[in-house]
Design brief:
38% of the residues lie in helices and 40% in strands. It has 141 residues and is an alpha+beta fold. It has a single domain, classed as Nuclear Transport Factor 2, Chain: A (Roll), CATH 3.10.450.50. Strand 3 and strand 4 form a beta hairpin. It starts with a helix and ends with a strand.
C-alpha cells in the first residue's frame, strides 16, 4: 500500500511538471519574439513549418521593386516559400523593433546580400491567439 501511494505521488509530480512545461511552450508561442523569429527562420532558412501559425488569416505581403508594387496573400506566400523550403539564404539577417506597444508592433528585418539588401517592415498585432503578423512590406536596395 505504501509503494502504491509513493507511485501515485510520483506520477502526479511527473504529470504536473509536464503540464507546466506544455503551458510554458504554448505561452512562448503567443509572444511577439516567437512570431518574429518564426518569420525570420522561414524567409532566411526555409523553415516554414511554423510560419502559418504566426500569420493572420488576412495577412498582406507587399513587394516594391523600383516603381512596381505587387501584393500577395497568405496562400500565395506559403506556396512561394514551399519552393525554397530548407534553403538557407546567403545573407546576413538582422532585425530591430521600430515601435512597440501592448497591442501592435512594427519590426524592421534587413537581409544583407552581397550586392543588395532586402528590407521587410513587419507589422504585428497582439490578438486573442497571440501575436500575429498582419502585413509585410518588402523593398530592395
Amino acid at each position: 500500500m505504501k509503494s502504491l501511494k509513493s507511485l501515485t505521488a510520483a506520477l502526479l509530480i511527473i504529470f504536473s511538471a509536464s503540464a507546466f512545461a506544455n503551458d510554458e511552450t504554448k505561452s512562448n508561442k503567443l509572444q511577439m519574439d516567437y512570431a518574429i523569429h518564426t518569420y525570420i527562420e522561414a524567409v532566411n532558412n526555409g523553415k516554414i513549418k511554423d510560419l502559418p501559425s504566426v500569420l493572420d488569416p488576412d495577412v498582406k505581403f507587399t513587394f516594391t521593386k523600383g516603381k512596381e508594387i505587387k501584393n500577395y496573400g497568405k496562400t500565395e506566400i506559403m506556396e512561394s516559400l514551399k519552393s525554397s523550403e530548407n534553403i538557407v539564404q546567403n545573407c546576413q539577417t538582422d532585425y530591430s523593433v521600430i515601435e512597440s506597444n501592448p497591442a501592435q508592433a512594427i519590426v524592421k528585418v534587413t537581409m544583407k546580400y552581397e550586392n543588395f539588401s532586402k528590407i521587410n517592415f513587419v507589422t504585428l498585432n497582439n490578438t486573442s491567439k497571440g501575436w500575429k503578423i498582419i502585413t509585410v512590406s518588402t523593398s530592395f536596395n
